[in-house]
Amino acid sequence: MNKQMSLQEIVGQLRDGMTIGIGGWGPRRKPMALIRAILNSDLKDLTIVAYGGADVGMLCAAGKVRKLVFAFVSLDFIPLEPYFRAARQSGNLEVMEIDEGMMLLGLRAAAWGCPFIPTKVGLGTDVIKFNPDIKVIDSPYDDKEWVAMPALKLDVALVHVNRADVRGVCQITAPDHHMDDWFVRAADKTFVTSEEIVEAEAFADPAQARLVFWERNYTTGVALVPGGAHPSSCSPDYGFDIPHFQEYNASAKEGGFAAYFDKYIKGSSEDEYQAKVGGLDAIRKLPQPVY
Amino acid sequence: MSTPASDYSLAELMICANAAAYERDGEVLVTGIGVLQRIAASLAMLTTNPGIMMTDSEAWILSTPNPVGKRPDDFVQMNENWMGFSRIFDNVWSGRRHLTGGPTQIDRFGQANISAMGGDYQKPKVQMLGVRGFPGNSICHANSYMVPAHGPRVFIEGECDVVCTIGFNPDRLPKGYSFDEIDLRCVYTNLGVFDFNGPNHQMQIVSLHPGVTVDEVVANTGFEVHVPDTIATTAAPTEEQLAVIRQIDPHNLRSKQLKDNPAGVRA
Q: Which A positions 114-173 lie with beta carbon below 8 A of chain B?
């Protein structure tokens, strides 16, 4: 069994109009090499579900997004993501804005084959007012009303991990695997980029096997892309690239996304991109963030 | 045992006021979103309520809070258990949490906004963060807020442009709920301490910082504030509290949170 694929082969599996979930959280462990490959493709009309960072900002800026399902889009140390902001303020982005936990419930409902999961989260707020598709229902067990958080069924999940084997056993050694396991379980297909491809024996130690958060029968394909989360972090391998994010953020005020895209991404392979940002060794030396 | 300080900053006064919020909370997860809020949570954990749990903002619950800002290379944080983001919901939806956030707008119903402002929802004038976890926080556990610049653009006349939290708006009360289930505690501003325990959950003055007048509060709040018969002066920090604050915040980041870092007692 060998699920290894190239970035190009993965993007070749994606279609216009798909609903795509993206793992990671804000500026942390985003599958950015795959995002760059999508930016260099003709894909369009995507519905994106994410705890968003520059992945969402870039896809919005490039006009790839028809609809965004989000709770926030932020680079943390730069609280407001510039291109997500511009997209919202242009009035041209269809959104489903929900609580962080509602997104988790929607992914779980999809993973479990349920049409919805009841929750009190969202009651009394504009989340239910601005999302007429999210229904509030009576309970068969008490006299309260409940938000019926609908399943967020994904066509595809894209995630970045620290280690994987060619069969699709994926390990996240970072302190938090975020909601990646739920994105994976909510999706028909999951494509993974990994810092390292290892032999199956690497997971034999129980302490290592505990850092595998979904089973390999969810993993459709794996691409070896060390440094592939840049400029987001991939703890413990590297931190996020603060100067690069600052340049990205500044580009929104001067030059626009086209300038950033032309300089770093347009027509570039991942190796060429990494050479432009200082090379893999430099990425691997990016310091861990201090919270 | 405790020595009231004579020389302290307004930021330090606000930290100590916010820390007092947690004294009787028992064993809850306390989250202070923002530098002053985090110092306040740490201060409470190290002094008045050792039952408090805090995270490292990444993935671990700490048995001792991390100092804010850059830490020495040999610093070892005191992890107590893993607490990734998905597990945070498992814990806090039980109600065992008290959060102090820093919203951009607060309205007369105690509803808060961190999502977007102006224009209309489809085309906001200023897009901010998004609702984040505010809807769930507001209906599941205790919440307080900190406002560094008390003014009518924060305490707005109408409803929040995006209502991110459940508050005391009768038109939005869900079926089967009562306002008793909404645990909105206090708002800590550069002018004073407020709560929503006035008549019909109106925001009222709990205490004013030294030298602040009722008129100043009224003029800087976009809606009517309840003025009770007796209003306390916010308690000064103690020397002991200031010493702990200096340990929590060795780089004095607290001095950069309020414009011009004003003194706690106005000149």
A: 119-127, 129-130, 136, 138, 142-145
